[in-house]
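Q: Fold this one first, please.
A: Sequence and structure below.
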Amino acid sequence: MEFSPNNIVVKLCIQGMDMEEKGKPGEAGELFLRAWNEATDDFEKFIAAWYVARSQKNTSDKLKWHETALHLALSINSEALTAAFAPLYVNIAKCYEDLGDLDKAKKNHELAISFADNPSDKGPFYHGTRADLQPGDLLSPGRISNYESELQMNHIYFTAMVNGAGLAAALAKGEGPERVYIVEPTGHFENDPNVTNKKFPGNPTRSYRTHEPLKIVGEITDWQRLSPEELQKWRERLANNKGKIIN
C-alpha cells in the first residue's frame, strides 16, 4: 500500500475537495460516494469513507461513516494512517456529544489524547537532494527551503517512501544529479505538519521532520523517476500553492 496522487480514488476525492471550495457540497458528496464505490481495497475505502463522513448532514450518518473509516484504519495497521486516529476519535466524540451520549464522547476524547504525535515508524528512511554526499555525512537543519527561496528551514525532512524522496530530489535546487540517500535520524522526529491530516487523513506520504541531523548510510539508485511533463506539473502546482510552510 502506497499513497499515489494518480490513484482513481485519490483523484475523485481531490475533485470533491475542489467542489467543496467552489461552494458545491452536493457535487462534492457525489464524488466522495463515487470514490467509495470505486474503492478496491481497505486503504482506498478508508480515504473515501473519511470524505463521505464529512459530507454528511445528519449526525447519525456522519458518525456511521467516521466509525467506518476508523475500523478500516485499524484493520490496515499502517504507519501512514496512525496520525489519523486522533482526529478520527475527536470527530466520533463530537458526534456522540451532539447525540447526547456523553459517556461515549468522553471515551473517544480520551482515545484521541492517547494518540499523541509520536511516530513509531521504523523506516527505512530516505532523503532526496542534489548534493553529493558520502556515508557518514550528516544533513542538518538551517538550509534554504526548496519551495520558498527566503525561508531558512528549522528542520530537516525525510520520508519512508523512496519515490517520495525521489520527487524531493527532482524538485531540489542545484545543478547536480538527483540523489536519494538512505538516512538514519539521530534524535527525535515528528510527523511533517505540512502534510499530516491536511488534504488527506493521516500521514499517507510517511513524511517526517527533525531538529537533529540525519546520518547518511547509503544511496538508492532505483526509484520511479518523473517524466519532464510530470515534473513540470509538480513545479506549477508548487508555484500556485498559496499555503505557508509550517517551519
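Q: Good. Now the second chain.
A: Here it is, same layout.
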Amino acid sequence: MPAIILVKPQMGENIGAAARAMLNFGLDRMRLVAPRDGWPNPKAVALASGAGRVLDQIQLADSTAEAISDLNFVFATTARKRDLTKVVMTPERAMAHAHALIAKGQKVGVLFGPERAGLENEDIVQANAFISVPVNPAFASLNLAQSVLLLAYEWRRLAGEAPDEALDLSKTRFAEAGEVRAFLAHLESRLDDVGFFFPESKRVSMLENLNNMFSRLPLTDADIRSLHGVIKAIAERRHGPLGKGEPHD
C-alpha cells in the first residue's frame, strides 16, 4: 500500500482526521514531515476516532527528502497549476498506477501539503507525478482529510474488493425463466378475459411489448408470486380491508 506523507501539517486535528480517512479504506502507513505543533499530538488522537494504529506507527522526518528517501515513486497532490513539466493524473489513474507499481515490489508515496497553501515547489520537484482532483474551479479548496480520503477511496476501490453494483436479494432469488413465462401466460389469459388485445391484428405486437417489459426487470420469485396475486385479485374484483364490497372513500 502507498505511504501517505503529510508535509508540515499545521493542526493535530487534521492529522487525526486524515488517519481516520486512511483506515476507513485500509491504509495505515502515514509519515509526517516537520509537523508544526510537534509529535505526538493529543488533538490528533481525539480526531482519529479509533484509528490509533495509524498514529502509533507514524514515521517522522525533518524534510520531504528524508521522508521519501526509500520510495521508488512519489505522487504530489496539487490544486494549482505549476510551471513544471510533469505528468498530471486523476486520483483514479494515480492509484491504478500505484497498484501496478506495488504489485511489482516498488514502494509508493503520496505527498500532501500544509492546510493553508499546499505543497511548495521545493517539495513538488521531488515527486515523479502530480495528482490533480477535478474539483469546481470556482471553489477548489479541499481540506487535508478530504484530500486523503479521496485518494484512499480510489486505492480501495481499485483493489477490486467490492463490486461496482450489487443487488441484495434479501432471502429470495431471481425468478427462473419458466416462472416468468407462467406469469406471462396467466397475465395473457386474464387480459383475454377483458378483451385487452384489440384489435386482434395487434395482439402479437402487444404481447411482445409485455414480454419485453417484464424480461427487462430483475424479477425475483417473490415478485412473481406477488404479481400472480395482483392479477388474480384484480380479475376477481376483490376489495381491500373492508371486505364487504363497499367502495373505499
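Q: Anything worth noting on the second one?
A: The chain has a mean pLDDT of 86.
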